[in-house]
Amino acid sequence: MAVVETRKLSKRFSDEVMAVDAIDLRSTDGEFLVLLGPSGCGKTTLLRMIGGLEPPTSGEILIGDRLVNHLPPRARQIAMVFQSYALYPHMTVYNNIAFPLKAQKVDKAALKLKVDWAALILGIDGLLDRKPRQLSGGQRQRVALARALVREPNVFLLDEPLSNLDAQRRASARDELQQFQRDIGTTTIYVTHDQIEAMGMGDRIVVIEQGRIRQIGTPREIYEEPADTYVATFVGSPPMNLIPDGGDLVGFRPESFFPLDDDGRSSGDDLVRFTLTDAREEYLGSEKLVYGEVNGVKAVARMATNAPLSVRDGGSAPFGVHKQDLRIFDRESGLRRQLARAAQVEPAPVSGAPGR
Amino acid sequence: MSATTTSGGAAVGAASGGERFFLEREKVLGPLMLLPAVIYIVALVGFPLVLAVLYAFTNVTVGDPRIDGTGDFVGLDNFRAVLNDNVFRKALRNTIGFTVISQIIVIILANILSLVLAADFKGKRLVRFLILLPWTTPIALGVLGWFWLLDSVYSPIDYALRRLDLLGPQTPLGPARNMYWLGETELARFAVLLVHIWRTLPLATVILLAGLTSIPQDIKDAANVDGAGFWRQLFYIRLPLLLPIMAVASLFSIVFTFTDLTVSLVLTRGGPVNDTQVLATWAYFKGIQGGSLAQGAAIALFLLPVLIAIAIAMLRLARRAGAD
Ligand SMILES: Nc1ncnc2c1ncn2[C@@H]1O[C@H](COP(=O)(O)OP(=O)(O)O)[C@@H](O)[C@H]1O
Ligand SMILES: [Mg+2]
Predict the structure, then answer these.
(1) What distance separates the 2 farthest-apart alpha carbons in chain B?
(2) B36 and B129 in one domain?
(3) Which of A73, A84, A151 sits opposite B224 (nearest CB)?
């Protein structure tokens, strides 16, 4: 097991492209750390630098508190699963899984034991004689995992391993993968652009945008205490509402935004009132979304389908948010207000990131 | 193409009813578009081939090339005569020898060269271009260049060897002042091999280079992460993945070398004493210069079974590569 750490890690591909920009992060031992960001934000590049496949432009990489900048991939005790799975097309499943062991010159008997063990854990023991092209996407993903597992690495690096699966298969694979990681307890860095995967699987999430870290935190912290408007709108679907108010942006989640009775019964001290104009309902089965405008800015509310709401299409209705559900951001910088103030007092991390 | 005409296509043609769409019907358009290719193949490949097969069983000569009746047919006489001919057997041995040896060397060199060229270095475009050059010159021209390089008196190679004190009186290669590259059996064979290698290496290298660059980066990365060093990656990943394309490159080169007339004809005219004679040159000397069209055809036909086998192997490989 090992802790992965990067210090001011950067990668510049050309004058214009700064793929990774001074990334500081530190995993804990056995953690499931998710790198989340839109396509092209530098997640793969960061992962490849940790794996030793891409030389950094500057900065340091430590695995198990050892500087590994100058170690080749095979000396880093890592295993990687690629987005394409990168199975060796000319080898059987057995030989694919055995390949890293053969490279380590493990003797034949021990090798077979290990391959069988890995295949059993991932439920592919019946497929050992097949070639990769005879496998489904899900089976290929398991073979790739088995090949990574068999070396008993200190760190798993996974690059969007579920993105080639269909939606149904992805949900169950997400669950299996998480269970698998819990069982073996190996530090895992998992790259995805899918916030649902990130929220569901990660012990902590690193939100990245244009090569920079926006926030590190648990899924709950990321969702409930976003460090800036970027995180607030990238995570959550539909994203957080942001209503301008002087030099501030007032943010609140669609599910915290609820209709008030016409008689104002549900008023109270902790309630902030808004008027939603130009309202429009969208039925989604178990829930519904109400789109509209607040102070001329688009806003959306989410509620149960059977929630009482009497508003005509295009009409107006009173809506409210509890004070504790409001998040105030600086309009100019996009940073959280309270946090920005706290940062002035002590140069602390943006959010409770253990070990930083 | 025309055989796969769908009923849908026919129905559309019928429905439109007009002559306007006559050309759009697959039944009409397919054969029409195939016609030039068919004419070309029949006239330039099929006709000479049939003629050669016919000639091989007759007694025609350059002086009397007509087949006048069944009386001209002599059965297997030509083949018998050819097989009993010592020069023919020598030519057959040489053809196979030149092809096998040169192609083994080419495939090894092409692998090494393509690996080197696949690496990132300054000026690799220029080097790639230079390596492909021999392929772009007409064979006869290139061989003439070699003919001069290996000239028995004025050879620049000999000159260089002399300047290096390797050739001439009291030197390792002396005492003669010239090597007589094309006059000594071993040297002449070496020269023919050398030119064949020089000739086929560029294409094989470029084909392999294309194969190498088509191996996905992820696969190479995975092998790196999995702890495979250079040799393990070479023998367990790169070469196996290159194998199909290597076979294609090899088959191309084999056909070129096996059927080649120019190198032996221009460089040595089959000499010294038929030691570099190959089937193509011998068929030419016998059939055209010697006047025995029938025997020339019989000699040339010995190439056919080998080439058919190679063609089948090529098509199989191509299909298997397509199926993956
Ligand atoms: N080998 C490369 N050469 C030049 N630019 C690259 C290379 N690899 C990635 N990039 C650029 O770096 C940025 C980050 O890419 P990547 O790490 O693949 O993003 P992600 O995995 O988050 O989608 C992108 O703008 C991409 O175009
Ligand atoms: Mg990526």
Answers:
(1) 92
(2) no
(3) A73
